[in-house]
Amino acid sequence: MKLAKSGDELINLQYISVSQLQTLFDQGKRNELICPACLEQVKLYLGIHEPPYFYHQRTTNPCPGATVEAKSVPKTESSMELNGFKLPTSRTITEEKVEPTPFLKARPISKNPAFVETPSVPSTITSTYLNALQSIGIQLDQEQLLAATTVDGPVLVLSGAGSGKTRVLTVRTAYMLMEQQIDPRSIMLVTFTAKSAKEMQQRLLTYPNMSPSLVSQIVSGTFHSIFYKILLFHEPQKWRRDLLLKWDWEKEKILKQAGRELELDEKEFAYDQALGQIGLWKNSLVFPRDVRAEDDWEKSCLFLYEKYEEYKAQNGYYDFDDMLVGCYQFLQNHPDLLLKYQQRFRYFLIDEFQDINKIQYELIKILSILEKNVFVVGDDDQAIYSFRGSDPQYILNFAHDFPGTKTIKLTENYRSSHEIVSTANRIISRNQKRLSKTMHAQHNNGAAPILFYPYDEEAEATMILTDIQEKLAKGARPSDFAILYRTHSMSRAIFERLAASNIPFIIEKDAESFYQRRVIRGILAFLRLSVNPDDTKAAGDVLSALFLKQSVLQELKAQTILQDCDYIDAFGFVQTKHAFQQRKLKKIPAQIRSLKNLSPLAALEIIEKDLGYQDFIKKRGNEAGIEKGSDDIRDLRVAAKRFDTVEALLEHVDHMTAMIQEVKQWSRQDIDAVQLTTIHRAKGLEYESVYLLAAVDGSLPHDFSLEAYRKGELAPLEEERRLLYVAATRAKQQLSISVPQTRRGKTAYPSRFLKI
Ligand SMILES: Nc1ncnc2c1ncn2[C@@H]1O[C@H](COP(=O)(O)OP(=O)(O)OP(=O)(O)O)[C@@H](O)[C@H]1O
């Protein structure tokens, strides 16, 4: 049904602009829409696979109005008869001056080559143990078998997504132990996360005749855990656990202390980004003396790096990065011990090799020098951690650095349907720097990936939620679904939609609430102060945005007592040496006070323009991270659109901030839940159905990579394409890619990666 009434207005979806759908959807949820024929409440359907329509909640006695053809209702008439129903059409909300933007139907990705069935060739296995594995359902194809049984010498396994590298690693380990009787203590098995090391051990224990004592003797874990154990064994005092700087806040505290010497403002300088930069240098074995700082930002980071290292050395502290660098230096300084380890570790098995960084590579190189039995598995198309110092060059150059390397390609994809695999192949084939391989799907049970076109982030979230609800009703489980995004802040709308539903969902443990982001907290502080003029915290939080020092808070407090006024009026009494600032301060009370009576959007505009928040964001200058403050504010405007009052918005913000803590608790439990995650964190995982948010230029590829591309740098853009490839290949059966028509309030353009 295309017709509904909202108050006196007749709404005809035929003429409605796509931008109004979310508002109508919300009105339907608030029971504000009625059927013009039977006057019962109706709601708006806003999903992926069908264009929007109104529907009655009741299922019996269908309303005859549902059959009224929307086309037959003209745009402007005061009243008309249809099928015996009198429809008041006094005014439709479709009377727009400009032509309404129509709803775009979802479409499947077309032109994938037809599926050619090539059943994986059953391998001729001569190993008794592998035969036993096969008999319990753990088959290997020819290439997997070769990878599992080529034990000596350097081996590079280039494995496409979903091609069974985890299976190969575990079977190979079992083969080495059981068939070749290799001493487990001589095997080092390195995984990307502690979780995958554990999973591999558990999987091994399900294999025939595998004893826990044998498995536990393998040296397995992440690079950090393995090399930390070595340090702890030789220098237990120096590497005591209580000396580890575990948390970012601890490290940032040290940086902030050092930053005072440079007069870096605590609230303005991006210390978290500086910490990332220091880690990047360290993992690339670039010490302070090696840094050639190129701009002010790098100069500040270098200064902090020196001070940070000094502080740790003086106080005996160390951080995670020191574990690897420390172990490398320790082994270099103790050639006798290095030789012992070289003699002990005779076999190296390294997973996710595409994401290895310099220090990790060097450690493996020095330890494997005697026998070079180094088995690495990776997919250069899934290298997505360059911001942590990982470099796909190591996988690209492996055969060169380890002469005699046998290269094995695993290209059969056992995870995803043919349409998904073909789409992913077509996407990644556009990358120039890659070792060529084309995946081939083993099955064809799944539809073509879908592109759908919501108006904005809000409608995107609604459409996904509707789709999940439909599939759950048909028997799917919450854990069948993952919603993937480029950066955390993009998850705001879908988080809010899921939080308001009864669908269980989980989010990564380090996800922060969108409203807790520095820039957002700063702008919301103005709104909070407006609503509660006695809010000391809010008064303190607006100071830096007004270019006032934190010490002004004391003066404000004093003025509230002396003048018997609230914090808002106290701004008018603050004395500064600059006439222009004094004039500005005099205007502040009226401006802040006005905010609470405005719509949230109008209030935000006053804060940005009249109260100078826009200037503040710009002057904050080095927005070294990939997310910019100005983008956060555009995101906030999209969120604020749904609220009529500032108070309602703040109430929502507080609710959502509390909610994220609660959801993080759920995430610790093993529950059947929809997964919200960044693409980075989804690596190695698989789901029946995957939704990818905002496949538009600026988001994926991210703006920073487009900027780099304009300056002639291709690598960041290619890494973004790999992210899309990783996202697409997480899906087993269904892949739904959202291409919103607007993003952050501006027209958005489909991701250039989708032009395949
Ligand atoms: N020879 C095989 N026959 C049948 N199924 C297989 C075979 N090899 C692997 N699989 C299945 O294929 C799926 C993907 O395997 P796995 O997770 O090991 O892939 P992967 O290469 O680690 O993927 P990615 O790199 O994309 O994370 C798993 O469900 C696994 O059980």
Search tags:
alpha/beta, single chain, 24 strands, binds adenosine-5'-triphosphate, Arc Repressor Mutant, subunit A, Rossmann fold, 756 residues, six-stranded parallel β-sheet
Describe the sheet with the most strands. 7 strands, mixed
Question: How helical, in percent, are the residues?
Answer: 40-55%
CATH topology of the largest domain: Rossmann fold
CATH superfamily of the largest domain: P-loop containing nucleotide triphosphate hydrolases
CATH class of the largest domain: Alpha Beta
Tally of alpha and pi helices: 30
Distance between the termini: 36 Å
Low-confidence stretches: 89-96
Which CATH-level-2 architecture of the largest domain? 3-Layer(aba) Sandwich
Identify the bound ligands. adenosine-5'-triphosphate
Radius of gyration: 30 Å
Q: Please give the number of β-strands.
A: 24
- Specify the overall morphology: globular
Mean pLDDT: 90
Strand order of the largest sheet: 8-17-22-21-18-20-19
Percent strand: 5-15%
Structural class: alpha/beta
How many independent structural domains?
A: 5
